[in-house]
Amino acid sequence: MLPAYVERNHDARLRETLRRATESRTPALILVRGDSCTGKTRAAFEALAAGPALESWNPIFPRTSASLLEALAAGALAAHTALRFDDAHKILAGRTGEAVAASLLSRLAEPGPLRCGGHHLDELFHRAHQTIR
């Protein structure tokens, strides 16, 4: 059993983003980022629980970049799939991570609806953003 959730300023925005993504015919990638141990996973969990029903959606929760790449290659991310992964900085790192990013980008260009949600540490997000510039 989880302890009571203390709602924060970003929760309403996250719920609204998830609601729009669920109702849209266009795939969406939603990235929740913040410092370590700030509640990114719990915020996403609570937003999903409060959002539109996902009974008819196929959930996929890969733990590694290799397993996500396998799911993408197998076409497992069809319409009405909810993809969720923790530690985006690990899933999208290295050679396999680059292949995952390219495959995920291709999938996001196809018809939806598809919800992809990941969690990323702020420090690593800013570091990657600086590298890209």
Describe the structure.
With 133 residues, the protein is of the alpha/beta class. It has one domain: P-loop containing nucleotide triphosphate hydrolases (Rossmann fold), CATH 3.40.50. 49% of the residues lie in helices and 17% in strands. The protein contains six helices and four strands, in the order H-E-H-E-H-E-H-H-E-H. It has a four-stranded parallel sheet with strand order 1-4-3-2. Strand 2, helix 3 (65-73) and strand 3 (81-85) form a beta-alpha-beta unit. It starts with 8 loop residues before the first helix and ends with a helix.
Quickly list its features:
133 residues; alpha/beta; 6 helices; single chain; globular; four-stranded parallel β-sheet; Rossmann fold
